[in-house]
Design brief:
The structure is a homodimer. In chain A, helix 1 packs parallel to helix 9 and helix 4 runs antiparallel to helix 5. Chain A has 2 domains: about 1-40 and about 85-115 and about 275-350, FAD/NAD(P)-binding domain, CATH 3.50.50; about 120-270 and about 370-430, 3-Layer(bba) Sandwich (FAD/NAD(P)-binding domain), CATH 3.50.50. Chain A is of the alpha/beta class. Chain A contains 11 helices and 26 strands. In chain A, the strands form 8 sheets. In chain A, strands 6-3-2-10-22-21 form a 6-stranded mixed β-sheet, with helices on one face. The radius of gyration of chain A is 23 Å and the shape is globular. At the A-B interface, strand 5, strand 6, helix 4 and helix 11 of A face strand 5, strand 6, helix 4 and helix 11 of B.
């Protein structure tokens, strides 16, 4: 049994999760009179907004990930531990770790995020993989690339058609970006690579349960986004509720009709559910959870009566001034992380700071080559200028100058040559092989 | 049952394997009056000489791989099939594929290479992973990175020492490059990243059965290579025959003594054995195999009485003028591939070409930062100039301008910042977790 204690007589801040929330909390504690321990089950911070580019072979996993140790290498008051929280004791201020360790904290920041959810239909997962981790992205890429490879060897035109049909479920930023990229690679990149099939005949469907795509954005952006997608050849079907997913078959309801699509590739970009750490916290603190398993926090992001436990990012249910829940994207997590760090530092000197207030600095989604939709303050943009802004903002926020440089070079290369170099089929797991029978 | 036939009435060359041999054969048939089908079980060509950099987190898999379809995209007489040969019928000129396909050929080039061999001790593999595929490299990287992570959480000094001990078995180019890189990352890159352990206290052993390292090179290079490695802190032990490998324990004989090293990381870079396709070919053609399972070919690289079947690259046993077998490296495979293509084209017009003659253009191995050993013709170099030559030659030979560009930028970045960005622990398989018990 290993005990991970503070080495010095300083206030010990323990951060669980190295996503946007945990990372920005940790960075805000640099050079402060506290000792910081960051615990994550992965050894890297993942820049999730670009995960769809890994899933479609445009970037390598390492391009969008930054080793946590590298990030905090020179932040000497901070230690990184590769482990997973399995429980808490909020009264004795301890976290229990999977690898048999125990950590004592003075303040605790929990930022373990969400995972994808199939709304109670876990049996859909094997037919419609989601996109939250590097492994998910590798698996999705394997399935997409293998579909083309199988089609190239297939004689039956019906099976070829099925293998070249893609259904993306959920038209949030990930679903929009995935379907736009699929349109781009089938129409352009892969077109010259096959001799038997014509990849530009691929069908791409984007299904959305609400009445417009990109629901976190304004209606004008949804409309221009839909137009841009349709121009690329994506069939956008809104108001469609998926009712069943089986091997190569999606069933959905639209306008009270039941429709079916036979598709060799079904990709899930619809729902998320809170990490199980929310439930653990509920069990020991009695804090309330919302329907998605998120922790309903106090206005200062603390939990119940515990002023030393903060929950931030996607795991927290935080309301804005209009009473709407903040979206599960990077900005609220980053701002929450910075706020929690500030609150802890203020607490050390007995100061009080005002409640957390989210500042919305904008939303954006890219739609294939040369096109994006952006909302920044009162400005709504779409098309080429929005696309350049999207590129700029993502390069700005991705961690590490090395990643910025490599991604910039890789993007420029991909742009001018239409290439996708990272389309290797590797680390195949059982579920990666496409399910069309021969 | 799918039949993969030639679409036009042209001589059909079928190439099995997209490594250096198959690739250069395929490229030499560009714009010629033949039809080419390349069959590989992977969808990419792998630049194996840089695989050790993936295993140590310096490069991403996609950096050293080129999608076969991309390579032959504009070579319109060439088709790529993702499949695996399971048998041959040399009399009816057919290849049988795993995915139930059959291919008719007029000429056949077999270039399926080798895999690592444990000299009859297959039980060693789980304790000492080898390095032949992208998956091997990912696994090796996971084990190396996890060893440091486990040590950081460990209290017992004996276990920390064991976790920070690396044994590399086999001092060919791969073993030398692996141990040199391990020295570099433990002494420099990782030094600031941990708070509890001092990675520079890591012990790195390089074991070699022969009396010198880099046996394919001249003795002067072996001597300077050994000096460079020792300067980096690697303990080089020649004349050492490994007799047993167990969980965290290597036993070897040196000078008639038996020695043991307790090590959390045992890496295999020792032996190779021919791909099973050699045995398949033996079964149907009666061709001779050598002890390593390689096909003993005719002077024109054909097999037995079959003038339409060529075996090239690592799978072929080819002797040079002194009667010594050509080494299993890229150059003989590339030259063999070009020769086979030339022989096939000559055969179409009834011409004869002289037997295959290997032209040795040099050997090189890098040894950590700023140091390498090179032999080019009568020149033998070591140190900084050799290192620059190594960089230049590898950039020159790696396929695709995109890869050249990205690797160049990544190398420059790694060099000046001492960073290793690609050290993510992903796609963990059961065997990846280090075996030290807590």
């Amino acid at each position: 049994m290993a005990w991970i204690n503070k080495a010095e007589n300083k206030h010990h801040v323990v951060i669980i999760g190295g996503g946007f929330g945990g990372l920005y909390a940790g960075k805000a504690l640099r050079d402060k009179r506290v000792q910081v321990t960051i615990i994550d089950k992965r050894n890297f911070h993942l820049f999730q907004p670009l995960l769809y580019q890994v899933a479609t072979g445009g970037l390598s996993p390492a391009n969008i990930a930054a080793p946590l140790r590298g990030i905090f290498s020179r932040q000497l008051n901070t230690r990184v531990i590769l482990d997973e929280a399995t429980g808490f004791d909020p009264d004795s201020k301890r976290v229990f770790l999977k690898d048999e360790g125990i950590v004592n904290y003075d303040s605790l920041i929990i930022a373990t995020g969400t995972t994808h959810s199939y709304f109670g239909h876990d049996e859909w997962e094997k037919h419609a993989p989601g996109l939250k981790t590097i492994e998910d992205a590798t698996q999705m890429k394997n399935r997409i690339m293998l579909a083309f490879e199988q089609a190239e060897k297939e004689d039956d035109p019906e099976k070829i058609k099925e293998l070249l049909t893609f259904v993306v479920i959920g038209a949030g930023p990930t679903g929009v970006e995935l379907s736009g990229t699929l349109a781009e690679i089938t129409r352009d990149t892969f077109r010259r690579d096959f001799r038997h099939i014509d990849t530009s005949e691929s069908k791409i469907f984007l299904l959305e349960g609400l009445n417009r795509i990109l629901p976190p954005m304004h209606e004008a952006s949804s409309t221009s986004g839909k137009k841009l997608l349709e121009k690329l050849g994506v069939s956008v079907i809104t108001n469609s509720m998926v009712t069943d997913i089986r091997k190569n078959l999606v069933t959905y309801r639209v306008d009270n009709r039941e429709e079916k699509i036979k598709a060799g590739n079904i990709l899930w970009a619809a729902g998320v559910i809170a990490s199980p750490v929310g439930k653990m916290l509920h069990d020991v603190t009695g804090c309330e959870l919302d329907k998605g398993g998120r922790v309903i926090v106090n206005p200062d992001l603390t939990v119940g009566k515990y002023r030393d436990i903060f929950v931030i990012g996607d795991l927290a249910h935080v309301k804005d001034e209009k009473g709407e829940m903040l979206p599960g994207v990077a900005q609220p997590a980053m701002q929450g992380g910075r706020y929690a760090a500030k609150a802890i530092l203020a607490g050390l000197t007995g100061e009080k700071i005002p409640p957390f207030k989210y500042k919305d600095i904008g939303t954006m989604a890219t739609i294939g080559r040369n096109a994006a939709v952006c909302e920044i303050g009162i400005f709504k943009l779409s098309g080429l200028i929005a696309w350049f802004m999207w590129l700029f903002v993502h390069l700005m926020y991705i961690l590490g100058y090395g990643n910025k440089l490599i991604i910039f070079v890789q993007w420029a290369w991909n742009y001018f040559t239409w290439a996708r170099q990272a389309r290797l089929i590797t680390n195949i797991r059982d579920n990666d092989v496409n399910e069309v029978e021969s």
